Amino acid sequence: MARLLSILDPDTLTLAVDALRRGEAVAVPTETVYGLAADATNPAAITAIYEAKGRPRFNPLISHVSDLAMAEQHVAVSPLAEKLAEAFWPGALTLVLPLRETGQIHPLATAGLPTAAVRMPQGFARELIAALGRPLAAPSANRSGRVSPTSAMHVDEDLGDRIGLILDGGRCRIGVESTIVAVDDGGLRLLRPGGVPVDAIEEVAGMAVTRHTALTGEAVIAPGMLVSHYAPDSPVRLNVSEVRPGETLIRFGGGVVPGEDRAAAILDLSPSGDLCEAAANLFDYLKRADVSGAAGIAVAPVPGHGLGEAINDRLSRAAAPRDTA
Ligand code: TXA
Ligand code: MG
Prior knowledge:
Largest sheet: 11 strands, mixed
Structural class: alpha/beta
Low-confidence stretches: 214-220
Distance between the termini: 29 Å
Bound molecules: threonylcarbamoyladenylate, magnesium ion
Strand order of the largest sheet: 1-8-2-3-7-4-6-5-9-10-11
Mean pLDDT: 93
Shape: globular
Number of helices: 10
């Protein structure tokens, strides 16, 4: 079973750096979701991530850095990318940038692509990378295809018997994964909506971000955009206007949904209608709804602006037919 260590414990940083130097995969809290982190330059360490997650190896990982200089050692940071990094790092924005020939991110972390996804996380994760002195490859710390973890307990439930060390930093502040943007030919393409709203990126960049339409059948560019992802065991119905008997209701903004008196349970993502609070609760509520033994999960509409884009993206993946994954 995995050992759980609080990030508040003064020995934790050293113990985690030692484990990472030995090539182990360690679960680390970030402001978005918990990551399963390993040395991005060490092929055996990256393999440990894929094995623990049961993740297909054609699905590349995000490499996390502690500062812009570390990013620049491995990828080419264009002026536009640097502008975005300055505005949003450390934070929930991942940039897909061309690899440098002299960079050391291992091809196993990029699945052999000529680009790498790079992000600078906040807080303890960033300190850990600085202490290690190398980028950390870290996908979300869940079994492949499952809901991402936003607490150490979630990680333990999913991966506790497959990894050695889980660092406990409490609940993740943002609660959905980073926004992924590819920066190429002077343009920006959205590969995954996430913790930074797209309009905030457009404002800083002074240009539109092209939205990718994975859900309507275009080729998969970011394999994390595989349609069925974040899959709970129970069937999920979206945008419901009525609850069926025995379903667990997930709603937003405190509004009463017809039939909710027959629901097995009611979980309100944000009674006050705050999309940030809703994002922070989303994965925990999906997991809770899934274990409550309900007939299914009924989700009432959530607004699509700001963080609502990422919330609705994750909900549509949770509801997608499983045979497409
Ligand atoms: O918030 C987050 O982004 C979390 C925390 C731990 O940082 N990480 C995360 O990683 O969500 P993961 O592996 O679950 O998602 C990474 C996504 C995948 O959809 C992958 O396909 C995409 O990034 N990706 C990675 N490298 C890429 C590349 N070179 N080009 C396009 N997509 C890439
Ligand atoms: Mg993931």
